[in-house]
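Reopening this one. Same input as before:
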Amino acid sequence: MIGLQVFVLLSVIIIGTRLQGIGLGLMGGLGLAILTFVFHIKPTSPPLPLVLIIMSLVIAVSALEVAGGLKYLNSLAEKAIHKYPNRITFLAPLISYFFVLLAGTGHVIYAILPVIATVAREKGVRPERPLAATVIASQQAAISSPISAPMAVVVGIFASKGIELSTILSILIPSTLGGTILATIVASKMGKELKDEPSYAAYLTAQKENAAATQAATPADDFARAKRALVVFLMGILTIIFFGIWKKYIPRWEVNGVESPLEMPVIISMSMLSVAAIITLIAKVKATTIVKAGGFTSGIQAVISILGIAWLGDTFIHANKAAIIALAQQQIAAHPWQFAILLFFMSMLLASHTATLRALMPLGVALGIPPAILLAATPAANGIFFIPNYPTLLAAINLDDTGTTRIGKYMLNHSFMLPGLVATISASLIAIGLVHYFL
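Same output, byte for byte:
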């Protein structure tokens, strides 16, 4: 019976990834219905707290976008890239990493991917190198951002184990940043030089695309508004970090003689909704325009995808926990580090850090894996690059009109495979070393 359930799980994932957009979430809902009505499996509670966090983050980022804050950040990134164009392969991934670390979602790199592709091509740098490294950097940063959805799951799991947000960040940020740097070094050596690439020769002989329309200068008052919005957004991030580190300042209530503090996911949601409200007020943003922002659209797609696939994965794992534990207990109990391999494999299938961590971290706890090892294994939940269907990955391929960034003949031999493997493996190894130091 479990074999048929696995078949359903894999089938809806494969079909959902082919549908793209919200297809994965929709197919996740269908798979959940099949498990419920055909196999009579009781569904778990929907991941509403997680959806609440992501929605609040999406609203805050969208408000920042409408106020011009993302455009302002993008202009700073553009200046840095244009100032050192010959170092774009190394500079672009680092900018992407810190951009995502602040925004909490890898989808914000859509703003700088066209700049990277254009500058690389103009300077004769193989665009595959900075584009592949940038996409991988964004995925690494998304799992370690203090306001990202994956971090919300991690905080929820480890808070009950006595591991503070400050400790989690002290391990995940250096490890993923180290993995990003090593991946960038590897990416800088990939492929032929652009001038020697056959696809580039074909590009030069073809009719060039129309030059991108030059953007009008942004009025000074718009820049001032964007800066105010960015300051508010950063203050919101610092607020979350503050309460994550200094727990004694968190509001708490006594219920039936038991003191109950405000939970961290609720703090994150309230902080981001407040950020969006303050930006709307001080930057004079029309609330009706927030839902029209590009970040809002992509964010809603992420919410739907996570709702469907996370709920499906959570239900499957919960229903078969005993069988999975029986199969994995002997092997993983003897070699707990192999839990990282399981995280990588499931993230590859689910195409989501968040869904993977939500489904498997409780399983790791049930298997008796020490919290320190679970935390060290967290960067391994970054296999979303393995199957080339992730939106930022596809965007990078489509933006490289020289054809150097591509999916190979055998699908898995694509431009992101080598830097992705290097980043994920090295980040996991660095995390292991840091865990021994901090815990």
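So the earlier flakiness isn't reproducible anymore. For the record, The chain has 20 helices and two strands.
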